[in-house]
Design brief:
Helices cover about 70% and strands about 10% of the residues. By secondary structure, the protein is mainly alpha-helical.
């Protein structure tokens, strides 16, 4: 299944739309978080493509008789970046004005599921 080319600029634009729902005093504070989230989303897509092509594990050999399989560097990086990305998205979400959890959750899921 072919994926569309990921654009950090599009991701940044989507995240800025969410920030517009914030009070003005909080919008400035979120600029760094938004930039970080867009960067991490781009890196996650690159890592995802690599993992899809090469798999989650890789073979290694240390010396003549020590070899096996281990988690790939890209897989480890993906897990770490995904955790950081989730944390940043949660921080941004926590700054949004109060609303019912169902509505907030639905809006986040809609945002995260957009492919454009």
């Amino acid at each position: 299944m072919a994926r569309a080319v990921f654009s950090a600029a599009k991701e940044l634009k989507k995240l800025k739309l969410i920030a517009e729902a914030l009070p003005e005093d909080k919008q400035k504070v979120t600029e760094g978080l938004i930039a970080d989230a867009a960067f991490m989303a781009e890196q996650l897509e690159k890592l995802r493509l690599h993992i899809t092509e090469h798999g989650w594990s890789e073979e290694y050999q240390n010396g003549a008789n020590q070899f096996g399989k281990k988690s790939s560097v890209e897989a480890d990086a993906y897990v770490k970046v995904q955790k950081s990305y989730a944390s940043v998205i949660k921080q941004l979400t926590d700054l949004l004005p109060e609303q019912s959890e169902t509505t907030a959750g639905a809006e986040i899921m809609t945002f995260l599921n957009k492919n454009d």
